[in-house]
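Before the break, one more example. Copy the sequence into your notebook; we will annotate it together after we see the structure.
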Amino acid sequence: MPPVVLLYNVGEPPPPVAAVHGRFPAWFRRLCEPEGVDLAVYDGVQATSPPPVRDYAGIVVGGSPASVTAPEPWMEAAVETIREAARVGTPVLGVCFGHQLIAAAFGGSVTANPSGWEIATHEIELTGDGRRDPLFRGLPDAFCVQFSHADAVDPDTLSAANGVRVLARNRATAVQALAAGDAIRGVQFHPEFTAAIVRDYVRARADILPDADAALARARDAPAGQRVFANWLGAWVRRA
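Here is what the structure looks like once it is written out:
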């Protein structure tokens, strides 16, 4: 049987985006199927019992319109799921909001990004730890990925004593990717976004962006994001 990844789903795309492109599970399934991996979905907002993390080869904690800076009860359950996965060795990949939840699970703080919205296609740079990490195998030191976020992990609150390492950064966001121990990884960017999806995110949020036209002009394909997800599947999920 193929390995099964659990999508810990904690939100929905903006309605205009969902109307054209579907929901998050379809986007992650598109990344899993070519790699021979099945995807199961857990509703992390509405469900009342935690998922059995040992039953899955890996867990993806996805994006959300919610904010870690405005806690809700379901967020603590998600944080505890991440901690339980770390205890039993189930690999986790946090994406955007999920990345921020990982930071919170290991003692970090999330704040409104001082740089404001980071949306559409931008470049990130790997740190020394990032260049050595299997998550970025085969990628250059700098590459472009897709974004839609206004919060960010505060790097000053991360502790090496908790096994946390910063793997990537750029000028707008100091923690673009992180590692927490051997099996937990987080990326602030969206490997599941295509250029068409990120353009529609810009259009859906144009009324709250300082320059939507500039963001639309930056949006383009960013295959490195898909490579990162494939690397996670290969280095952690199949190994598990």
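The helical segments are 15-21, 24-32, 73-88, 97-105, 128-132, 195-204, 212-218, 223-237. The longest helix spans residues 73-88. Try to locate both features in your own notes.
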